[in-house]
Structure to design on (176 residues):
């Protein structure tokens, strides 16, 4: 019989992790796990920055601020596009109805690119449509990824962000 009060003779495993093992502090698996933990916050920050830039992009022709000149109210299509873009930009910035607002904003920028810029030349660098193309694809990304962290949808407990979070918490797979 062994005495429960006697000191243990088993040695603890003090072998450091080998440099190539997944447990090593600088290993690619460790870095990937840490980046995956930060992904919702990076996506939320991306959404906030893109929404802010888009709201500023549309405020310029609406109000004549930020180096732009105001377009007369009701001018087709620029004034109406700017109103839609300002609303979508603010919604994306706040994280309210992000997927729907991003879909509308992406379509708005696709229309702007193909109707205004693309007839001038084929490539965005040639026709001045870089911002339209970048906004279009950034918002298309948000349509598929959702708002990420720091969205007001999560605060109010409504919308797709809360539904996705509830599915994630239950461990149920998210349907594509």
């Amino acid at each position: 019989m062994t005495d429960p009060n006697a000191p243990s003779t088993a040695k603890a495993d003090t072998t450091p992790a080998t440099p190539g093992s997944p447990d090593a502090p600088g290993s690619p698996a460790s870095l990937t796990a840490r980046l995956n933990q930060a992904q919702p916050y990076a996506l939320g920050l991306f959404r906030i920055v893109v929404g802010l830039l888009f709201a500023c992009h549309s405020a310029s022709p609406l109000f004549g601020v930020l180096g732009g000149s105001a377009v007369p109210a009701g001018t087709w299509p620029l004034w109406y596009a700017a109103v839609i873009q300002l609303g979508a930009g603010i919604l994306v910035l706040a994280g309210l109805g992000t997927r729907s607002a991003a879909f509308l904003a992406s379509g708005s920028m696709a229309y702007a690119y193909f109707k205004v810029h693309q007839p001038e030349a084929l490539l965005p660098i040639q026709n001045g449509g870089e911002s339209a193309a970048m906004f279009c694809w950034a918002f298309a990304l948000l349509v598929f990824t959702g708002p990420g962290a720091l969205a007001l949808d999560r605060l109010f407990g409504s919308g797709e962000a809360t539904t996705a979070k509830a599915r994630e918490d239950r461990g149920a797979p998210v349907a594509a």
Observations:
- DSSP finds seven helices and no strands in the chain.
- The radius of gyration is 25 Å.
- Helices lie at 28-63, 78-94, 98-117, 124-127, 130-145, 152-156, 160-170.
- The chain has a mean pLDDT of 84.
